[in-house]
Amino acid sequence: MKKLFLALIVTSQFAVAQNQTKTTPNQTKTDSTDTHQLAEVFITANRTATKRRETPVAISKLTAQSINETKAVAAYEIINKTPGVLMVNLGNEQHSMAIRQPMTTNAYYLYLEDGLPIRPMGIFNHNALLEINQFNLQSIEVVKGPVSSLYGPEAVGGTINFISLKPSINPEFKFGIQADQWGYKRLQAAGGATIGKIGFHIAGISSLQENSWMTFSDYNKDNLNIRIDYNISPTTRLISNTMWGKYYSDMSGGVNENDFYNRDYKSTSDFTYRKSDALRTRLTLEHDWNENASSYLTTYHRDNKLGQNPSYGIRWSAINNPTTATGEINSNNFKSYGIIGQHTQKFAFLNTKLVAGALYDFSPVTYWAYRTDLKANLNPDGLTVNSYEVIAERPDVKIADYAADIYNTAGYAQLSFNPIEKVIITLGGRYDNMKIDYNNTLDQSTGEKLYDRFTFKAGANYNPFDNAGFYGNYSQGFAPPGITSIFRAKPRTGGTTGVPAEFYYNLKPATFENYEIGGWITLFKNKLNFDYALYYMDGKNELLSVKLENNDTDYRSAGETRHKGIEFGLNYKPSQQINFRLGGTYAQHSYIAFEVSDKSTDALQNLNGKEMPNAPRWSANSEVYYYPNWLPNFRTSIEWQHVGGYYQNQINTVKYAGYDIFNARIGYKIHNIEIYGNVMNLTDKLYAYNVSRANLSTSQPAYLAAAPRTFLMGIQYNFSLR
Fold first, then answer.
1. Which of 25, 261, 488, 535 has the fewest CB atoms below 10 angstroms from its CB?
2. Strand residues in 659-701 grouped as ranges (E)
3. CATH 3.40.50.2300: does it fit domain 2-720?
4. Which of 86, 111, 113, 110 lies closest to 100 in space, CA to CA?
5. Helix (H) / strand (E) containing 9
6. What per-residue string of b and e applies to 250-264 under the rule 16 or more CB within 10 Å gives b?
């Protein structure tokens, strides 16, 4: 298999998603795999509508057709169709990510909703995408690699932009229900129209999970999105977007090795949870000055409340007092008030295009966390826990307690031009300044932290043929430490009575330098599309976590890390009935200089030369689609997801073998009714989404078990006066 992949790589890579194509008499569909790739238009890479052949980055697009046919319960089912991307399911729409990084929850990804970050700088949350309404998506654009020079800090490993549905010209309405055999069910509805100068679109979902295959894993989620467009004139538009979301989930956590292999899907806790209340509103004024100039001004507000009694916060040691443990309860609340303005100007000289803008964001935040005392009921082996019980909540023992005002300001500009025929040069830069005024109750300190950075990128596209092109770029990434890390008491002393807490005040911003080349080719009258991207990225002061023996986390800045790999994708459509796609990545993520101890008595001094844990070298996703001419409006597909083996710990002593799973999807439209079914994990394979352990030889692995074979059934009514 590796030889086959390497052979493909020699020719070209990653599959971007695709434009709508003409329908056949037998099918009313827009094809998600028939690409007119070089003419495909993207918004995310340059903040304005730009053709793929003019964009010197690795970028992919998932179209409405692909989203609609996936019928996803959670966003990872859609996102993982993108070459080079592995979104890791942590259960109940919780997730981590792996784009040019190991599977991680660190703040090296930027999640956008219609081009605006879901979170302000400094308050990253790896679960932010659980707030996304899957029934409100027009497309998803994924940029791989640093784009900090345009979108700012945290846009390092990748940037994902969720583009919402716009108001339809004619009245449209759709309503659906879906459910599986494990107690999951969802209601969803959306509709919109344009009446005179005003267009509107409303989309809502309500999800509920009860009595699943894993004990203590219920959840419910409600989302509502409202968009209103007011076309003031042919050249001026006023657009309002509002998102409201409410989420509550049990946190079942991982299972021990014996229970995993015996398929004893039993949570060790019945008290852990995650809850979220989110409100985002924005108002955008757009104006086209002429055919060569346009501007927009957006004001926005965010209001988020996140509370947890997290399963990952349970700290237990098999060596010291194995019948006791501790946990925590925390709350992270913030609001944002911001404004962003941007102007785009085209010039006849060298076909020059200039994009420039500025942003101001004020986000006050409060955070507190305190300890809970737990009893650990052991399994007969004495090395693992059967269940935890809460003995007492200890609000008197604080782990963190702070308030902060975050001020983010930024200015950016990007210039592209044609110095010679078939060559496009792109230059861009951005200055970010994040100031934090804080009050840390635990050490009774007040002060100011300042993180600022200028990031730069330079790229070039060379398109020698109508059906092929190449690009190269150099880009910088920047990510300040999240304030939750800065003001959290260090585990060695935090929460110990009579001992002053120590904090991570000296954590440095992480910086990255990325070098990349890529290209694309279309053959056989656009029936075959093939892309590739090769990257080499060095990180300095990358914030990494060290998993301690009691499951606590210590934060360290690595002196240097290295991320390098190849991303590739192939789309082939031999006929109107059959489509095929293959996308994936081969990557290596390594510690170059990472000191984990400055004590001469510690056996483990550094991790230099080690591979990073949870970093599979190979991952791939492939799918075959069939749209039979003999049965109009019918579709079916088989999807293959491959995740290669990876080290469970940082010292590279134990590996998890990875997995291969298959998913099947089927759907049929009868007039305005669509009936569909998905079979996830078709072969009922036993596998884990993630396996991790601490570095001690006695450390036990935690398996985040994946669902057994799951049958999802759904029905949807679609109405349109089109």
1. 25
2. 659-670, 673-680, 688-692
3. no
4. 86
5. helix 2-11
6. bbbbbbbbebbeeee
Q: Give the N- to C-terminal CA distance of the chain in Å, as an integer.
A: 47
DSSP states of 556-597? EEEEEEEEEEEEEEEEE-SSSSEEEEEEEEEEEEEEEE-B--
Q: How many residues does the chain have?
A: 722
**Cβ pair 139, 64 in contact under 8 A:** yes
Q: Six-digit token pair at 5? A: 């992949």
- Kindly state the DSSP code that residue 128 receives in the 8-state scheme: G
Residue 127, both tokens: 């679960």
Instruction: Map out the domains of the chain as residue ranges.
Output: 2-720
Average pLDDT over every residue of 222-240 = 97
Give 102-125 pLDDT, tens digit per residue: 999 989 999 999 999 999 988 999
Q: Which helix (H) or strand (E) holds 419?
A: strand 385-420
Distance of alpha carbon 590 from alpha carbon 587, whole angstroms: 10
Angstrom distance (rounded) from CA 268 to CA 465 = 60
In a 3-state reduction of DSSP, which class is residue 135? helix
Closest CA to 226 of 290, 162, 166: 166
Query: Residue 480 gets which letter from DSSP?
Result: P
Give Cα 331 distance to the centre of its chain.
Answer: 22
Run of H or E including 257 = helix 257-261
The CA-atom distances, in angstroms, between 688 and each of 99, 266, 657, 661 are 19, 14, 10, 11
Are 675 and 635 spatial neighbours (Cβ–Cβ below 8 Å)?
A: no
- How much is the average pLDDT of 654-661? 97
Compute the distance between CA of residue 561 and CA of residue 538 in angstroms, rounded to an integer: 6
Beta carbons of 693 and 680 less than 8 angstroms apart: no
| Per-position DSSP letters for 583-636, written without gaps between them | EEEEEEEEEEE-B----TT-S--B-TTPBPTT--SEEEEEEEEE--TTSTTEEE
pTM for the full predicted model: 0.91
Given CA atoms 58, 159, 5, 103 in this order, what sign does their dihedral have? positive
Q: How far apart are CA 439 and CA 447, in angstroms?
A: 7
Beta bridge partners of 92: none
Specify the residue for token string 């605006």. 116
pLDDT over 60 (residue 26) = no
**Under 8 Å between Cβ of 652 and 610:** yes
Confidence of residue 37 (pLDDT cuts 50, 70, 90): low
The pairing of beta strand 109-113 with beta strand 158-164: parallel
Distance CA 633, CA 719 (A): 16
Residue 475 identity:
S
> How big, in percent rounded to 5, are the helix, strand and coil portions of the chain?
5, 60, 35
Question: Degrees (nearest 5) of the Cα angle 108, 112, 114?
Answer: 165
Residue pair 457/427 in contact (Cβ under 8 Å)? The answer is yes
